[in-house]
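Example with several molecule types.
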Amino acid sequence: MEHIELFFKSIFIDNMVFATFLGMCSYLAVSKKVTTAVGLGAAVIFVLAVTVPLNWLLDQYILKDGALAWLGPEFASYDLSFLSFIMFIATIATMVQLVEIIVEKFSPSLYNSLGIFLPLIAVNCAILGGSLFMQSREIPTLGLALTYGVGSGIGWFLAILAIAAIREKIRYSSVPPALRGLGITFIITGLMAIGFMSFGGMLTGGDEKPAEKPAVEAVIKKQEIKKDTKEIVAKNTTLNE
Amino acid sequence: MGLLSKKDTALLTDPLADNNPITIQVLGICSALAITAELKASIVMAVSVMFVLGLGNVVISLMRNIIPSKIRIIVQLVVVAALVIIVDLVLKAFAYELSKTLSVFVGLIITNCIIMGRFEAFALGNSPWRSFLDGIGNAAGYGLILVIVGFFRELLGSGTLLGFKVLGDPIEKSGLYAIGYENNGFMLLSPMALIVVGIIIWIQRSRNKALIEEN
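Resulting structure tokens for the full complex:
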């Protein structure tokens, strides 16, 4: 249950792009065409799903206050959390390199579609932001950290896909010359972010206790909808066959 | 001034307007938007970036001949991360409240594209002094946008500037509030930062036609 809740929360309510503005640079730079946007989005999901759990382990067993207690009681008073920036970014940079090498070796076709984006990702704020939010929100288990990573990745993917589609269409409309390109993209993103704010009530419904029940129902509904769409998809595929 | 030749002055002033890192180069937007709800946070962020970028540019420029080009990204990340840790610890020690408002965004200076962008584009090929000026200039251009956005969002959103109630007191109904003025709470929400930056870009590009993009 809490997995599903965190999953939808990280996709819609705490959407990387629209709620916290992370990964804006590549979001603006690589959203001119849908196909490239899909490639970068997929790479972000992949890297977030790998690095967030990894950094969770790092945080839990090395960096946190008292995390070194597993080495012996004399280490229990160490607090290395001031090192977390440098450790997280080192993990991310090495993981990205490693993933690039592995993907190149085992799946050249995936490498051809993802490959050029992977080096870009090491300096994508969304990746480091995912790890830092994981740390500051104190996500309790490894499983939840994985869910959080995948969820935020999908949120970012949705955002870049949406803006790329809009930008492809907007080419045919007459935007005021001074707003063309960057300006209109900013304003559209602002409007989309306002739209995404309406998801805010989906899970929490405010902070009061009584509101918790409808929140759960909303999640269940969401699941049902998902099931429905799955069935429809299944039907369609059988029809096609 | 003998210290700054004409070229050097251009390094400092270009990023303020026609080569602004945010509105023209599209670098460093992530952090620019999230923390501009109040002017004070914007100023602190601008100063932090200026420190990191100025010093980082010098360090990278000093090492530019000994960094193997294959691992330069990791070297750059380590340099930035070390500088950002200094900023973070200083903020935690002297401005704890503020460091709470900035939360993870201090850490995100590491991946602020403006820093990597300037390292790659300038510090790797220029002397330390010129790199320093370039760093300060770009950070100032970045800070300028931050301060403008922070100014408007705080003024229109909560009617204060740096915490001072410049438009009067909304509860006692003094100043502008006496004639029925209301704060626009919407300005405090994050999407408005995007729209304010969009409007800044609009104004800048309609004044300087050379900057207008092809569709």
